Amino acid sequence: MMTNEDTMRWLGRVAEVLHENRDYLTQLDSAIGDADHGINMDRGFSSVRDKFPAMAATDIAAQMRTVGSTLVSTVGGASGPLYGTAFLRAGGAAANKAELEPADVVAMLEAFLGGIVARGKAQPGEKTMVDALTPALAAAKQALAENASLAEITARAAAAAEEGVKATIPMLATKGRASYLGERSIGHQDPGATSSWLMLRSLAEVCAKM
């Protein structure tokens, strides 16, 4: 069961992890993008963190919507609209829920991925964040079907996302900025998939301590 305090801990951990990995994500993006993914994500979640005092008293749906609207307005490039839409959709999935059961968390993850697919029109295999989130959702659904704990569900989702990130390295990018490089995009890890995995890893860390 996740409460709004747990989701605040998760968002706080995401902000920390993206700040810690700012240079790493930017380095990944310098190979196949605009060399700003880490900078943009750190800026976005720094703005989210500024809103934590007000968010702490709101329900989970409102928290997710605040994150989404903040990312849309503060994150440059494609990542702002993509992650912004993802969090807005996640907020919709959490509507009218004071606490989240494991099934609710999986539903939020599905809505999160759905938001990115709807906004970016990406499919698995195109070297995007979808390549981390799709296997993560599949792993989460499988774990839920096995009546696994929330800690186990999120751990398996994060592990699947990490494998998905590694799988982007040999892919040819056919979506987004990286697609302009054609064959030269092969051999590089996708930065968006990497930041998606870092968010899920942060969620697993928080759920493991609940």
Give the gist of this structure:
The protein has 10 helices and no strands. 55% of the residues are buried. The model has no long low-confidence stretch (mean pLDDT 96).
Describe the protein in words.
- With 210 residues, this protein is an all-alpha fold.
- It has one domain: Alpha Horseshoe (Serine Threonine Protein Phosphatase 5, Tetratricopeptide repeat).
- 70% of the residues lie in helices and 0% in strands.
- It has 10 helices and no strands.
Distance between the termini: 8 Å
Helix content: over 70%
Mean pLDDT: 96
What is the top-level CATH class? Mainly Alpha
Q: Structural class given helices, strands, pairing? A: mainly alpha
Which second-level CATH architecture applies?
Alpha Horseshoe
Strand content: under 5%
Instruction: Return the CATH topology.
Output: Serine Threonine Protein Phosphatase 5, Tetratricopeptide repeat
What key attributes describe this structure?
single chain, 210 residues, mainly alpha, Serine Threonine Protein Phosphatase 5, Tetratricopeptide repeat, 10 helices, 0% strand, globular
